[in-house]
Design a protein that fits this description.
By secondary structure, this protein is of the alpha/beta class. It has one domain (3-286): NADP-dependent oxidoreductase domain (TIM Barrel, Alpha-Beta Barrel). The protein contains 11 helices and 14 strands. It is globular. It binds NADP nicotinamide-adenine-dinucleotide phosphate. NADP nicotinamide-adenine-dinucleotide phosphate is lined by residues 19-22, 47, 49, 116-117, 151, 171, 201-207, 210, 238, 255-259, 263, 266-267.
Amino acid sequence: MNYKDLGNTGLKVSEIGIGTEFLFHQSKETASDVVNYAITNKINYFDILFTVQNYLEKIAVALKSHRNKIVIAGHLGTKDSEGRPKKTRKIEECKLEFPKILDILDIDCVDIINIQFVGLTDIPKLYDKNGLYELAQSFKKEGKAKFIGLSTHDINIANQAANTGKFDTIMFPFNLANHYLPNRAELLKTCLQKGVGLIAIKPLAAGRLMTRNRTTSIAKYQTGGISLKRKIPNDITSAQCINYVNSLKGVSVVLSGVKSIDELQENLKYSAPKEEKQDFTSLVEFFREKI
Ligand SMILES: NC(=O)c1ccc[n+]([C@@H]2O[C@H](COP(=O)([O-])OP(=O)(O)OC[C@H]3O[C@@H](n4cnc5c(N)ncnc54)[C@H](OP(=O)(O)O)[C@@H]3O)[C@@H](O)[C@H]2O)c1
């Protein structure tokens, strides 16, 4: 496993991280086995997307017992709605929800507090007094988080956020299907220049790239701005998809969303970028938007 700088945070993160979203529906045993297997394989970055009690309990023991050697990102902007995750922008709700991550995982702080799913309608209020950014800052001041991040599925919001100087990390979808997304190259460049840690989500376009031999629609939120339809090649592999994202200069960690050890094993067949450049031309051209 290679480790990269997470922007200017001083944190060294494994080039592959675990997005725990798809452990939500798995048994406690599977969820905990996946986390332990990842740690055994030297993965040190874990993304905690929801505040749902049952989900947090599934991964709590495994994460807590390795706390001193892993990086944890916990999200702000989500709530537990009768056992299901629900987006919320209500400050009072977010104030009550975020500490549940610390309580249930039994940890003092997260490394990154990530303001999640930032959309266009969130922007006007984001930096207001009593807005979500101020709330993230107050958790940081209280010692409950070390750094502040933002995640979005909109390339313009990601670029704006990277330029504000307010965020230590940005989460954004990167995959073979968005190679030609307008302004994506700018995001990579800005994050590198400004020392913002870039966390790549959706390396498999939320699993769409694995629907081999089937005609599949890939939605805008899976690429950060492009929707397209393709018959997915029969021979595409998850390792190829991850290799591509991992080869992008500026990306610190590629978050893989897995629901089993089998999927994680498959994804760990990726290979670290080599001296000689890997050639992804035919794949990125295949997904290029036809004008
Ligand atoms: N806004 C945010 O903050 C935000 C948004 C989205 C995601 N995230 C985080 O980023 C993580 C990564 O994003 P993602 O999970 O959407 O991306 P992804 O890795 O592109 O897709 C995950 C999907 O691919 C499938 N898959 C994984 N490995 C596979 C394999 N070897 N073979 C076949 N299918 C495989 C998964 O399981 P199945 O198809 O088998 O179910 C899952 O549906 C999430 O888990 C989450 O923690 C954050």
